[in-house]
């Protein structure tokens, strides 16, 4: 079969796109990068050279051009969320397949508009990068729980600490402090965790939530850790508490997430799944199980029994030395090439996740 | 000054009253036990003999008799909560001082009725045994936070596991499984914890809560661990999640409590108080800080700094070898004899705590 021809919107000189998307796309014979669309043709040309892409790769500066290009089958969008709508709308209208990072839009309104455009454009595959569904650790937890090893699930408690949202902010992440950008602790940190904790189930009724911006002013640092702004205004929330019951057997779920580093020498994430006959405990350095950490661990304790550590089975992404951030994104590309739907998040599904976030804001009296 | 003459309602052959109330009452010259009122005169007489009380001690079987006895100044009530109303009403009507264990009543209605009787009777001192307020560890956490060592408080998260409410129930605690008795995980476990986590502040608006009885059937065991009933019906809740903001500076507070033992080798309680400049971490084998544990610990981490353990200063109760359960109850008696009000819970205050519990039930569609 001919490789899928990929056009990437937003292949920066560093950051997420090259680290997470390029490794599998460059190695897999199932994909061929045929176009890059950055903020200017010159910037796209620079990326083509930097990543040694073939000289035939098209360099665009306007999302309309990638939408018109017949040599692009799949548009990958890795720009900041507040530019998703503008950059992928033309491709959706042109009926092209799209793989866009989570969150889908900067707001529920934008996410719904993108879903509408996708449906109108008759797009066959439009997916959103909630890649925790591909993470072997999540699959292992899921299968462990479904195997009945801890009996019927009675509750799930999730406590996590984010590196972001603490006493200072790196200049390159300044936008995460502006609620209206839509890329913050609520949409990204909570959004990804919420997706994997739910195990694919929704909530019976909207969960009850508490959002607070407890550090409205933070210190802004440059990449060398030097202060560039002593008192920088932040409008996004750094404290997110939630509880609700899953539509799957009314399982009570509790979340407590705060910005800032965890207490020294304690896990950045502690996730318990308590069952009639035992408990699962997942710990990691942080909450991003959708990416993963070197030290993450699944333990199971049966009542009155010993604690066992559960080994997560590796696959070719582990064997072939992919970096952490590229593994689960790579696994999404592999699903796409195999035509698998399980473990992929469509636009409908993403809109439902946006609806919860919107509901959280409204419940807390926040206008977005 | 003449000692305060104490009448005890409910001095059982074992359990809470002899372990928690007797030690200080017997050692302190400020108190003299003059009467016992158990379910029968014979049972009171047996207790008087068992605990070697003076032969002059009155033995009663009817709460009306203790209410009428002019040689009783202070009535101590340590019977099961669903008998508080019946056993202390006569003494309140007679205007006697009362020290009754928490919860005040089996329901909000009962608690309000007791407050009304106390006011009508013109009772000078009517207090409720929420003794966490006397616990040195709580005072140490409070003074640590108030000293500003971690800066302005940004949030507090409390995660705890109860020994009760798990896969089996001891026959002697069977009543804790019946919601209508009013002595259960919501009123006792959550009630005490809620009191110390609040630090004496109320919630700005009613907190949002989730209650669930996830083990409606449990195994009942005798005191030798033998099964006496394979499938015993339980109506009280074993899963309690809450979040809200304290009236003190809008501090977001998250609680997650579930019945049953903690995951092996992890603390039964983990309480974090996160501040602008650092974090306090309190850990213990269980959640009953109002009683305490041998291994409980307060740690403080300043950002970028080392973790320090905070030593809790001992007092004469520690020096004089009181048992854990008698220390904070003893400290309440010491407050009473010194005429101190700080750290004592009055009936008004207790009714407010009952109001929250009632609100929790209503919020979760539970009739009590």
Walk me through the structure.
Two copies of one chain form a homodimer. The first copy, chain A, is an alpha/beta fold and about 375 residues long. Chain A folds into two domains: about 140 residues, Rossmann fold (3-Layer(aba) Sandwich); about 180 residues, Dihydrodipicolinate Reductase, domain 2, CATH 3.30.360. Chain A is built from ten helices and 18 strands. An eight-stranded mixed sheet of chain A has the order 9-12-13-7-14-15-16-17. In chain A, β14 and β15 form a beta hairpin. Chain A is globular and about 65 Å long. The model of chain A has no long low-confidence stretch (mean pLDDT about 95). At the A-B interface, β7, β9, β12 and β13 of A face β7, β9, β12 and β13 of B.
Alpha carbon gyration radius of chain A: 21 Å
Q: What pair of chains forms the biggest interface?
A: A-B, 41 and 41 residues
> How many helical stretches of chain A?
10
Global structural class of chain A: alpha/beta
Residue share in β-strands of chain A: 25-35%
CATH architectural label of the largest domain in chain A? 2-Layer Sandwich
Helicity range of chain A: 25-40%
User: What is the level 1 CATH name of the largest domain in chain A?
Assistant: Alpha Beta
């Amino acid at each position: 079969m001919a490789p899928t021809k990929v056009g990437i919107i937003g292949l920066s000189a560093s950051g997420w796109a090259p680290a997470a998307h390029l490794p599998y796309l460059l190695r897999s014979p199932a994909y061929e990068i045929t176009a890059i669309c950055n903020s200017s043709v010159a910037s796209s040309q620079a990326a083509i050279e930097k990543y040694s892409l073939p000289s035939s790769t098209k360099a665009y500066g306007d999302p309309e051009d990638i939408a018109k290009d017949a040599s692009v089958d799949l548009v990958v969008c890795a720009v900041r969320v507040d530019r998703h709508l503008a950059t992928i709308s033309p491709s959706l209208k042109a009926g092209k397949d799209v793989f866009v990072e989570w969150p889908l839009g900067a707001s529920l309104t934008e996410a719904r508009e993108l879903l509408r455009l996708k449906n109108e454009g008759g797009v066959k595959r439009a997916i959103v990068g909630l890649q925790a569904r591909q993470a072997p650790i999540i699959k292992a937890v899921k299968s462990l729980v479904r195997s009945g090893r801890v009996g019927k699930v009675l509750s799930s408690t999730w406590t996590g600490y984010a590196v972001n949202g603490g006493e200072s902010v790196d200049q390159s992440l300044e936008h995460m402090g502006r609620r209206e950008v839509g890329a913050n602790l609520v949409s990204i940190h909570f959004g990804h965790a919420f997706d994997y904790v739910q195990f694919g189930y929704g909530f019976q009724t909207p969960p009850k939530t508490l959002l607070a911006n407890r550090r409205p002013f933070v210190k802004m640092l440059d990449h060398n850790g030097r202060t560039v702004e002593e008192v920088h205004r932040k409008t996004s929330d750094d404290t997110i508490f939630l509880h609700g019951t899953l539509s799957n057997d009314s399982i009570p779920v509790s979340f407590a997430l705060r910005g800032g580093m965890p207490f020294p020498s304690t896990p950045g994430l502690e996730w318990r799944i308590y069952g009639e006959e035992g408990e699962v405990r997942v710990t990691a350095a942080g909450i991003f199980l959708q990416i993963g950490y070197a030290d993450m661990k699944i333990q199971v304790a049966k009542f009155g029994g010993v604690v066992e550590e559960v080994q997560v089975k590796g696959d070719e992404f582990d064997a072939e030395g992919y970096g952490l951030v590229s593994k689960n994104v790579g696994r999404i590309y592999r699903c796409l090439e195999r035509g698998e739907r399980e473990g992929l998040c469509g636009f409908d599904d993403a809109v439902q996740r946006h609806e919860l976030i919107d509901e959280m804001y409204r419940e807390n009296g926040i206008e977005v």
